[in-house]
Amino acid sequence: MNSKRLGNSKQIDWENHLRCPGACSTKFKANEAGVDAGAKSLGVKSRAFPALGTASFTRLFWTLTTLIAILALVVGCGQTTPTPAPTEATSEPEAGGSEGKLVIFHAGSLTVPVDELSKAFQEEHPNVTFETEAAGSRTTARKVSELGRQADLVMSADYTVIDNLLIPDFADWNVRFARNTMVIAYTDEAKFADEINSDNWYEVLPREGVIYGHSEPDADPCGYRTLMVWQLAEKHYDEPGLYEKLDENCPPENVRPKSVELIALLESGDMDYAFEYRSVAVQHGLNFVELPEEINLSMVEHADFYSQAEVELSGSEPGETITTNGKPIVYGVTIPSNAPSPELAVEFVEFLLGPEGQAIMEAQGQPPIVPAVSPDVDQLPDALQDQVEPAAAAPSAGDEVALSVTGAVGKELSLSMADLEAMGVEEVAVEHPKKGEQTYEGVRLSKILAAANPTGETLTFVASDGYAVDLASMDAKTCEDCLVAFDEGSLRMAMAGMDGSFWVKDVVSIEASD
Q1: Residue 223: burial class (beta carbons within 10 Å; 0-12, 13-18, 19+)
Q2: How far apart are CA 239 and CA 295, in angstroms?
Q3: Per-residue pLDDT tens over the stretch 64-99
Q4: How many Cβ atoms from other residues are within 10 Å of residue 245's Cβ?
Q5: Is the pTM of the predicted complex or chain greater than 0.85?
Q6: Which CA distances in Å does 215 have to 383, 444, 465?
Q7: What is the four-CA torsion angle of 454, 459, 463, 466, rounded to 10 degrees?
């Protein structure tokens, strides 16, 4: 307790004062009996004192009085009740639980589920603490791949981000554990709230006075997924011009960098409707319109139809653009190679993929994938392999374009899987930058480039999620063992002699430029 100043008097140490309830204010009578009592308390008989004069007696009296006062303070104030030492039981961790710290980098839409998962995990393991960071999925992965930061878990709203940015240099596997759905969120105060539904939403939104919005496509996947929903809706409802109508009635001031800003606008009444993930609407207690499976980007069964939607986004350099195509919203989790607590991280993933973790994801509006799947089951820790099944190969793409070669080329190519197979499939053993020698099956890159005849000096390899990497055209042409390899129904680059950044997974285009 702090000292307190009273007027002009000196400070009083209130902590010591309160510890001395009465002895500190004891008064002593200035008489001979008091001196005798004081002398006896010190083990001295008063008769042993010689006869003293008044002055000497007074000095002796005050000397003894001071000594007695000090003794009283020592006895009365100095003897405090000792605090018992902590018992052995309270100083040791609780038996049966793991301990340590888990560092989790996760997508923003996983903020609430991760919080709930952490609390539930701590009930079983009270000596485990959590350090979590939310960000966009690509930003989350780049904290590990580019900034060199350590994390025990990376959880992405788009599983392909882990494939493209972390595997193989920064992680060995990727488990797809949950899905999400695009919905239209609103409150009871929204215009036509009592009328809108999954059959008429595209007619309600353009009505006069209705304000709706979405997040910024270049900053937030939910933003470009909104534009994909609009494109798919035009095809699904057979409403020519629907995309343009929805876009025209959503001015720039209705587009915000982050989805949380849209939630605030809905709750304040400044916006009627917002395109959001279903989980976000559930977690904020909002009403929402369930969109048809054919357009809500939730079902693997409709992957072919989703792929017809495409959005042009800003590239890594000013003036550059990249194209991303529609695909199911599937979440992925991995343990980076630099994880400080990998064994504890495995326990958490076990919990996430188990019944309790699945129930938490379901309650938060993010249906779990049961059982979870992975194309890398053989790379998983032993403790996880029984909970994960191999990812099924994607449905045959038929005559759909699997790889395009465009830009500064003699001949632009739009190649289906059948076209690639017709060019000659080969099996090539190449040195993987992390896994050592691996065997891949596909078409030699040099053969594809010979057919396209690129005249530009640079080739850009672009993945379906927008990840892109540049390579000198001459280096690509002269790489005899570089391969466009078949990979679980998609394509990937197997770039012999090059670092992991060039081993692009789910590659969809090669763009030549000067």
Answers
A1: buried
A2: 14
A3: 444 444 444 444 433 333 333 333 333 344 455 789
A4: 17
A5: no
A6: 39, 40, 17
A7: -120
